From TrEMBL:
Protein name: Phosphomethylpyrimidine synthase
Pathway stated in the Swiss-Prot or TrEMBL entry: Cofactor biosynthesis; thiamine diphosphate biosynthesis
Subunit structure: Homodimer.
InterPro entries the UniProt entry points to: ThiC (IPR037509), ThiC-associated_dom (IPR025747), ThiC/Bza_core_dom (IPR038521), ThiC/BzaA/B (IPR002817)
Length: 634
């Protein structure tokens, strides 16, 4: 007999090392937790950054227990079930023997093989018995919200969006000026303080969702909606060709470390079910999937063999595992497919093309569209949110905003209303590839047709000539559409259109999207967003180098770049950097001007004029060159 193939990856040293790296606390940072008021047991994470001048800046923290040095983490057991007491207390769900737990995994279909797999998974401590709504109950956050209930999840979100209030006030001395400086071309009104009641209202009217499957009690709840901070989603997942389960878990932890608010597992290869167990049980952020991918695996990759029954079983299987939102391409209707015939790049959505093939082969309306209410019935038993897929999104600038895309968008709006009839939380997926001048129309159309359900876009990529740099090409579009009101931005990595992202690509993609999301938050005037910029700018002006690194999105890279040219410790307090050198540092000059003014008792403007003249002479004397050799620091 052959030796049995190990079902689970063995823990390799490199994996342990990588995880240890991902678990390192950020420099000068301490994770702390804010208590709830309505619900006393809430512990809402924030990251407090201690500055060298004694101040403290506190930032939104997506990294979960991983960056908490006190947390015991065993990825074979999974994270603690934070939400379990809340779900229990509601008393509207029950444990059951998951039928789908035995469902198809890995293509191995004999009962024997399945039982073995299940036993192994249980031994690994990762499988949980599922729960679902008691008969007739509806366990969605939207359902509670509409009945006037503020759940612990809602209060958690309110506290998380606000963060620590104390330090923000210090930076908002000029509130009036700030008010004049912020705005959104499509008119969003963001409250200065987000109350639990405000969260409830937003969820009740469908303008925000809190993706939170009752079978994913490990998550730290978060909200997606245009009156909240703009969120980002990172896609991970193996394909038939590359990547192991461990790599995926590590990517998940890595992604949340750098700021992913949500992660989608887009695995398509072998071990789909098992990979998902590992990801879900170890994820502090909501997890989304595209169930049609697994359904397609079950029919051997032949789209036309898909049936409603196979799809339905896949939904239940994944809902029992705890997936928080499903991308469902129910807007790809038979009648719309011909609208893509003249496109330059046809249908670029994987899910969209699967459904288009099915519709064309059978010449029938999509089973996702026809069974939409049946899908809603499943979603509300677990509180899985809809992410209504944009299967007809443009795949190139030349196809942007065409009839196929907008026909689908309108259908997604109709489906939203059906979902809301069932109190199922819903967001709408959007493009794709859209040049800058066509972006605003996307947001406007979405608002018009989708009743303010949160918009969740993939980029959009503003140009098509940047393979290898599509994270940048798309972050530009993401920043614009985020500013206009898109609630979540699906990242694009440098590997887009080229290959599966590795760990570095994941980080690059996240950084590009943190920049886009924060740029949108600042422009929209989210409470406290600008305060971090102000703190960093002040540190820059005061030459507090260490604070400058630590307040940044990526302290490691900032410090490393600085140290490349000025590695000495003295340079960390030096009043210049190697960019302009000690003589031509504008900030240093401004400070000298201010000192000069103080000494001479001159008004700052007059001092500036005088000081600048003096500097101009100095500049001429130095040869009138901007780039001078760096004088070494002692
Ligand atoms: C986001 C917005 N539009 C598309 N997306 C993401 O693309 C979606 O959330 C999922 O991660 C992926 C689905 O791709 P296909 O199947 O539409 O190509
Ligand atoms: Fe693309």
């Amino acid at each position: 007999m052959n030796a049995p193939q190990p079902e689970f990856p063995t823990t390799t040293p490199s994996f342990t090392e990588l995880l240890a790296q991902s678990r390192q606390p950020f420099p000068a940072s301490r994770k702390s937790y804010l208590p709830g008021q309505l619900h006393a047991d809430l512990r809402v994470p924030v990251r407090d950054i201690a500055l060298t001048n004694g101040e403290q800046v506190s930032v939104y923290d997506t990294s979960g227990p991983y960056t908490d040095p006190d947390a015991q983490i065993d990825i074979r057991r999974g994270l603690p079930s934070l939400r379990a007491p809340w779900i229990d207390a509601r008393g509207d769900s029950e444990w059951y023997v998951g039928r789908m737990r035995m469902a198809l995994d890995d293509g191995g279909r004999s009962d024997e093989a399945l039982r073995l797999k299940q036993l192994r998974a249980e031994a690994a401590g990762l499988q949980r018995q599922p729960r679902r709504a008691k008969s007739g109950a509806n366990v969605t956050q939207m359902h509670y919200a509409r009945r006037g209930i503020i759940t612990p999840e809602m209060e958690y979100v309110a506290l998380r969006e606000n963060g620590r209030r104390e330090w923000i006030a210090a930076y908002q001395q000029d509130a009036e000026r700030e008010q004049r400086l912020v705005g959104n071309p499509l008119g969003a009104s963001i409250p200065r303080i987000i109350t639990p009641e405000f969260v409830r209202e937003e969820v009740a009217r469908g303008r925000a969702i809190i993706p939170a499957n009752i079978n994913h009690p490990e998550i730290e709840p978060m909200a997606i909606g245009r009156n909240f901070k703009v969120k980002i989603n990172a896609n991970i997942g193996n394909s038939a060709v590359t990547s192991s389960i461990e790599e995926e878990v590590e990517k998940l932890v890595w992604a949340t470390r750098w700021g992913a608010d949500n992660v989608m597992d887009l695995s398509t290869g072998k071990n789909i079910h098992t990979t998902r167990d590992w990801i879900l049980r170890n994820s502090p952020v909501p997890i989304g999937t595209v169930p049609i991918y697994q359904a397609l695996e079950k029919v051997g990759g032949v789209a036309e063999d898909l049936t409603w029954e196979i799809f339905r079983d896949t939904l239940v299987e994944q809902a029992e595992q705890g997936v928080d939102y499903f991308t469902i391409h129910a807007g790809v209707r038979l009648a719309f497919i011909h609208l893509t015939a003249q496109r330059r790049t046809g249908i670029v959505s994987r899910g969209g093309s699967i459904m288009a093939k099915w519709c064309m082969t059978h010449h029938r309306e999509s089973f996702l569209y026809e069974h939409f209410e049946d899908i809603c019935d499943i979603m509300k038993q677990y509180d899985v949110s809809f992410s209504l897929g944009d299967g007809l999104r443009p795949g190139s600038a030349s196809d942007a905003n065409d009839a196929a895309q907008f026909a689908e968008l309108q259908t997604l709006g109709e489906l939203t209303q059906i979902a809301w009839k069932h109190d199922v939380q819903t967001m709408i997926e959007g493009p794709g590839h859209v040049p800058m001048h066509l972006i605003q129309a996307n947001m406007a159309e979405q608002l018009k047709h989708c009743h303010e359900a949160p918009f969740y876009t993939l980029g959009p990529l503003t140009i098509d000539i940047a393979p290898g740099y599509d994270h940048i090409a798309s972050a530009i579009g993401a920043a614009m559409i985020g500013w206009m009101g898109t609630a979540m931005l699906c990242y694009v990595t440098p590997k887009e259109h080229l290959g599966l992202p590795d760990r570095d690509d994941v980080k690059q993609g996240i950084m590009a999207y943190k920049i886009a999301a924060h740029a949108a938050d600042v422009a929209k005037g989210h409470p406290g967003a600008r305060a971090r910029d102000d703190a960093l700018s002040q540190a820059r002006f005061d030459f507090r180098w260490q604070d400058q690194f630590n307040l940044g999105l990526d302290p490691d890279t900032a410090q490393a770049y600085h140290d490349e040219t000025l590695p000495k410790d003295a340079a960390k307090v030096a009043h210049f950097c190697s960019m302009c050198g000690p003589k031509f540092c504008s900030m240093k000059i401004t400070q000298e001007v201010r000192e000069f003014a103080a000494q001479k008792g001159l008004a700052e403007d007059a001092a500036l004029a005088q000081g600048m003249q003096a500097k101009a002479q100095e500049f001429q004397q130095a040869g009138g060159q901007f780039y001078v050799p760096i004088t070494p620091v002692n």
